[in-house]
């Protein structure tokens, strides 16, 4: 987070010197509202981000089509993307949701550690060896260049796909139309052809496959959008409000991002496979800890990832489902756990490698 703050501060300081940072304009107020609604959803997924230093800066550069989010929620968007593309609020929400998605998935931290961390040493050495303020300012410029390298460095294809998935869901839950993700990229394709390669295009390589991926997410995202509270301001101003009065989030029951496997779990359709008993024993301590902490989302995810058909695993799925409010799914999983408890190879009480962690699987109740 400190790295991000240093790089963000130096980068914006350079733009402020050039009078390129917009303050209190119609566009900045518009972007603040959109971004605040996205942050409100992001905090529900990762409650610890309620303490991030969320900030969005508008850089007045109509020729640059780009946006970014550094670790810790430090964001910027160029007027070339917000106004040059004539982007709607729904399309801007897709851009900012995508960038927030990178931060939530820790993509920026990984990129920064690989490409920019050495600049910390540059700044420290600059202070030590500079004989005067002019020399120090010159050395600081190197740090700003390094920050720009972070902004302009492409993400991996895997990271882009993950950010797309997170971004479109954040936007849908915040009340912004999912189909805007497709119209945004269609506008990007046109702008890219006219300009011969935009900044956003270079750092976020696109293809017809990417658009098809977003189109494939549209049906489930439409369901989330239909139940979202669209319009208006969120209850708290994450960007400009008093940080000491930020809402306290319950870290034990965060939301989960949509996926086919999570959708199946929530509906009681998950079927565990014949995974490795040894692999299950390696994660059993973690599962037990998540259960005791009532961290239902991560308990379900870790159990599904372990993919081992045993009564204890279905017990964990049942308890996680009950804790998350999926009552019908919980009953289904707990019934399976009870049935498997009587089969030697599928019973933790009778299995040679898997212990029951002090849990009475056979007499499990629906109570979380």
Automatic annotation (TrEMBL):
- Gene Ontology molecular functions: metal ion binding; metalloendopeptidase activity
Q: Does the keyword Hydrolase apply?
A: yes
Gene Ontology BP, a term: proteolysis involved in protein catabolic process
Q: Would you tell me the Gene Ontology cellular component terms?
A: membrane
The Peptidase M48 domain extends over: 29-216
Cross-referenced Pfam families, in alphabetical order?
A: Peptidase_M48
Keywords tagged on the record: Hydrolase, Metal-binding, Metalloprotease, Protease, Zinc
Instruction: Please list the cofactors this protein needs.
Output: Zn(2+)
How does the cofactor attach, per the note?
A: Binds 1 zinc ion per subunit.
User: Is Metal-binding set as a keyword in this record?
Assistant: yes
Query: Which superkingdom?
Result: Bacteria
Q: Which family does it belong to?
A: Belongs to the peptidase M48 family.
User: Entry's PANTHER family?
Assistant: METALLOENDOPEPTIDASE OMA1, METALLOENDOPEPTIDASE OMA1, MITOCHONDRIAL
Q: What is the name of this protein?
A: Peptidase M48 domain-containing protein
Source organism of the structure: Polaromonas eurypsychrophila
